[in-house]
Amino acid sequence: MWTMPPTDSVLHVLSFIAVAAQSMTAALAAGRRKMDWAGVCMLGAITALGGGTIRDVLLGHYPLLWVAHPIYLAIAGVAALVTILLARLVHRLNVAFLVLDAIGLVVFTMAGCDVAWQVDASLPIVIVSGMITGCAGGVLRDILCNEVPLLFRSELYASVSVVTGLFYATAFGLEPNPQLWTLLTFALGLSLRLLAIRYKWEMPKFVFNGEER
Amino acid sequence: MWTMPPTDSVLHVLSFIAVAAQSMTAALAAGRRKMDWAGVCMLGAITALGGGTIRDVLLGHYPLLWVAHPIYLAIAGVAALVTILLARLVHRLNVAFLVLDAIGLVVFTMAGCDVAWQVDASLPIVIVSGMITGCAGGVLRDILCNEVPLLFRSELYASVSVVTGLFYATAFGLEPNPQLWTLLTFALGLSLRLLAIRYKWEMPKFVFNGEER
Amino acid sequence: MWTMPPTDSVLHVLSFIAVAAQSMTAALAAGRRKMDWAGVCMLGAITALGGGTIRDVLLGHYPLLWVAHPIYLAIAGVAALVTILLARLVHRLNVAFLVLDAIGLVVFTMAGCDVAWQVDASLPIVIVSGMITGCAGGVLRDILCNEVPLLFRSELYASVSVVTGLFYATAFGLEPNPQLWTLLTFALGLSLRLLAIRYKWEMPKFVFNGEER
C-alpha cells in the first residue's frame, strides 16, 4: 500500500506555535465583534482546537488531544489573552501573522493526515482528515462570528491543505527518507499558501442568481 | 416488541440519488453566496452527508458511512461540480429537483431508522434518528450560509420525516411483508412531502414579539 | 488526588426543571424568529440537551443521556409547546425564568463535572466539561437563531459556570460531607449568577477596530 513518515518532534513544537497563532487570529476576530474577555478565550480555543476535535469525533479517535493534554487549552487561552493586551502591536505584525497562520494550516494538515493514517483510513479519508484538521477551526470561528465561512469564499486555503495532504500521504511516489519527506511537505505547503496570499490566487467563483426555492 | 424491514438494495441505489440531489441543491445555495468552487464542493458534501454523520456521532455508530465508503464523498463532490456547469439547466429543472430532494428526505429518513434500529435504540430514538438523518444536513447548509434554518421556519419537512419514520418503524401495526413495507413507507413519505409542497401545507407559526431578555 | 460528591437525587429532579427552563427560553427566542411549531420544539430540545450532548460526544461518553432516556426529549418538547400556549404569561414571569435559567446553569455545570469525573478526566477537563454542559446549549440556540452567541458578549455566564465547577471539583480544600458540598456549590453558583444579573456584572470587553485581513 502506501506509507507516511512518522510524526516529527519538530512537528510537535510547530503544533504549539500553530495553536497559538490560530487562537490569536480568532481573538482579533472576537475583538471586532466586541466580545468580552471570556468570549475571546473561548473563541480562541474553539478555533485553534476545533479542527482537530471535529476530525477526532468523525474518526472516533478518543481521547481528544486537548482532553488528554489540557496544556493545549491553556496555550490557546493564554494566546488569546495576550492578543487582548497587545492588540495594537499584534495588528502591526500582520505579515508575521499570515506566516504563522500558514504554518498552522500546514502543520495541522500533516497532523490530521497522521491521525487518519494511524486509524488505517483509506487515502481519500487521510486527505480529507488533513483538510478538516487544517480548515474546520476557521469555519467554527466564522460560524460563531455569524459570517459565511471565509474558507468557502476566498483564497486558496482548503486547496493548499488538500495538495499538502496529497503530497504528505504519497510523496508523489518519490519515497524520500522520513525527515526529508516531512520537511519537503512543510516547505511545499507553506510556499503554496504564501504564494497564494502574495499573488492573490483564487479559485473561480460560482455565482448563481436564481431566486430561492 | 416491534421490528423493521431490512434495508432494501433499491434503497441503496436511491441513497446515491439522494446524496447527489441534496448536494446539488446545496450547490445552488452556495452559488447565491458567491462561494468558490472548492466551497461549493464542501458545502455540497457537508449538506448531503451531514445528516447521517450527525446521527452516527450521536449514536456512537462508527465508522461513519463516508469514512468507510469514500465513494459517497466523490458523488457529493461531483454532483456539486456538475451543478456549477449546468446551473442554468439545473435551475430550469426546479420541479425535478423538488422531487429528488423529497426522495432524499424519505430515503435518508428510512436509512436513519435502520441505523438506530441496528444499535437497538428505543422507538422514539429510531424516529428521531430518521429525522436527524433526513433533516440535519439542510440545517448545516443553512448555518454555513448564515441563515436561520429553513427547517425551523417553513413547510412540512421535519414533520414528513417524523410521520415517515413512525410508519416505517411500526407500519401502524399492519406488519406487511418487508418489501411491501419499504415500498409503502416510501410512497407514503414521498406523497406527503409532494402534497405539502404542492398545496403549501405549513405548520402554524409561533410569533412572539416580547423584547429580548 | 481529589474527589467529588456523588450526584444527588435532588440534582436529578432539578435537572428536569433545568431542561424545561432552558427549552422554554429557547422557545421564546424561536417565537421572535417566527419559527413554526415543529421548529420551536426542535430548538427547545437542541438548546436544553445540546450542552450535555456536546460534552458526551467530546468525552466519548456513550450512550447520550437522551438516547438512553428519551423522556428528556419529551420534557424539552412539551416545555416548548407549553411556552407557545402560554407565551404572554411566560413573558410576564420574566424574573421566575431568570431564576430557573440560573438553576439550569448551575445544575448542568455540576452534572457535567460529574460525568467528566466518572471518566477519570483531569481537573481542567472536569471544569471545562461543566462549562460546556452549562453553556453550549445556549451557543447552539444562538447559532440556529443566526446571532453571535450571547455567551461570548455579555454577562457573567461562562464565568459563573467555571467558578461553580471549580468549587464543585475542589470545594476549595474544605472537604465537607457530600450533601453539604453539593448544597454549598448550588448556593454559591446560584447566588453568583443572580447577583451578576441583578448588578449587571460584566467582564471587560475587547474592542478591536483593525480592518479585516
TrEMBL record, chains A, B, C:
Entry keyword set: Cell membrane, Membrane, Transmembrane, Transmembrane helix
The family this protein is said to belong to: Belongs to the UPF0126 family.
Protein name according to UniProt: Glycine transporter domain-containing protein
Sequence ranges assigned to domain Glycine transporter in this UniProt record: 13-87, 99-170
Biological source species: Bradyrhizobium macuxiense
Bilayer topology term: Multi-pass membrane protein
Residues spanning the membrane: 12-30, 37-54, 66-86, 93-117, 123-144, 156-174, 180-196
Pfam family, one: Gly_transporter
One GO cellular component, as annotated: plasma membrane
Domain of life: Bacteria
UniProt-annotated location(s): Cell membrane
